[in-house]
Amino acid sequence: MSEADESAEDPAIPVEDAAVDRSTPLEVEGLRKTFGGIVAVDDVSFEVEKGTLTGLIGPNGAGKSTTFNLITGMHDPDDGAVRFNGEDITGLAPHEIANRGLARTFQIARELEEMTVLENMMLAPKGQVGESLWRSVTPGLRNDVRSQELDQLERVWEVLDFFEIDHLAEEYAGNLSGGQRKLLEMGRALLTDPDVLLLDEPFAGVNPSLEKRLLAHVHELREQGYTFLIVEHDMDLIMNNCERVIVMHQGRILKDGTPTEVKQSEDVIEAYLGGEV
Amino acid sequence: MSATGLRDRVADLGDRDVGLVLAVLAVIYVVYVLAGVVFGYSLRGQLNSIANLTFYIGVFGMLALALNLHWGYTGLFNIGVVGFMGIGVYVTSVITKPPVAQGGAAQVGGFGLPLAVGVVGGVLAAALFGLLVALPALRLRADYLAIVTIAFSEIVRFTMMSRTFQTFQVPDTVLGIDLAADTVGLGGGGGLILNYPSPLEALLRTLFLWDPYLGFVGFVESNLIANNPKPVVDGVVYGLVLLLVVGLYYWLLTWTGKSPFGRVLKAIREDEDVANALGKDTNRFKLKSFVLGCALMGLGGILWYAGRGSITPPSFRPNITFFVWIALIIGGAGSNTGSFLGGAVFAALLYEGPRYFKNLVEAALDLGDGPGSFGQAMAAVGSLDPVPFFVYTLNSISQLRLVIMGVVLIWLMHNRPEGMLGHRKETASTIDLSRPDRRDAPEEAAATDGGERP
User: What is this model's ipTM?
Assistant: First the structure.
């Protein structure tokens, strides 16, 4: 693939960053999932390269969210394998996968409503000693918990500042607007210290100015070395921002390539673009 | 915000909670004492009424706190509270009852171990059965857990009543030691006679306070209550012990809630999938929360019933479970302070209150005996004389108590579904989550910092 093509299309993507380490933290091979008689995902294979923004698009019912759920362990695949950083994680429980550094957000932002923004954020970090009941209620050991929480708190505020939702810190998450919830969810996922972030329609129902902000955050994080796989409906948004686009249709992968390649693909035009016009 | 400012704010919150609890208790006690004055109670009567009130405030406070861990924090819909209480007190009794069977063939003996061992055994048994229920049931959605727990509590009650478990033959000696009476068991429908020293005596003896205590009783006898003051003093002191235990529950559950552990519990309550996606093994957390709550319910059951002369299966009907639920709903699920207040208000207003109200009215107005049946009461209303109907209603107040509870619940659901203190920010953390001081910089500086990889 040619980096020059992309940067010509979208100068927002710095060329030098896209050229770094080409290892593939996330590999999906021959995934298949059926619900009753419906084949939701059929023989889906792709790789996500480190430090890239990969878009996963397709019409409704194409199997994008199911693919996400298969990768993150919410569903068990009928066939196929998911490898993360070289390790086979197929069929592991969601929390085990999350703990390995694969974080996700949900299609409809699922904030924890009756918890404050700060509590939402403090929940996320991995390896909290205070998650052991005994440590939390034993007077001597509770001091360890406190000091770890104090360290965590600094990072939480950094992330709140980064996403510019620090003024909402004390608010109940349920009182946030749709867009603010998306920011909260992304911040929370980020605090689990992931290698790869799977974002399920992060821009759905977000107003244009906030969408711009979210995109800027995603690009900034990608430059810092995070890897993104993004499910999205909005073709233009994906075409303009991702280095690579995977198009799904009726549970299968229709096309996997650069935005230019995808735009020129007859199959994609027929199945997706053509179908919508 | 300065550090001292924060500390003051935290201290304020603590003080406000303590102040609120003390204020509510003060109002309750003043009303009860005033009612006692109206009744013309002697000092003995006043103390009895106070002891009784304190007892119920204590047990309902404890049980509401334990249930708050399940429902308020973790969102586990446990409607089998009384089952775990029953297991606690029955196991305690069997362990503690003296080996020599007394009172004829129907009575069974026990293992004759110290009460402390019995209490520990009872609490552990409640926790163990909590684990047994939780292992399969926590994988189910909330309403199925509810069905499993209420069915379990009924199974416990039927087991207490069953002939099969009424008596067991125990081998005379095991490894050369005579462990227990020849027959132990749950006593069937007749229940168990608790023929061991009272829990208060056992506790005070363990603390080497028994002789000073007897001295104190003697002092009361010679100065305040002339005739056999011990039962009265016992009651008051046991009530105080219960309040002390409530304090321990409160401390334990507050620390549990205000910690990363409690934070995960809250997240499970809000959305278990999210907690999972953030790397939390939610099944483990739910299991721990459920077992801890069951153990506390077991202890609550022991402290409620182990001091009585006997226990019988009808005491462990599901209505107790629903009383505890009402207490929790009044106080506000999710708040520990609210749970205790709910327990106290429920005990004073809805559980003991109606009876007091009846006594109060009878003391104020000399109404005489009421009509024997509803028909007679209504007949008088027909002839425009409401008094017989009024007296009939008063005489039926213990049945009407349930109606009153229902009305209060409906009113709460409509007007204040979150309870007295629900929907409060009791932040689940060991620390104050305000912006740390040294990062308290202008907006721009903070934004630059955010640029680094966090």
Answer: 0.85
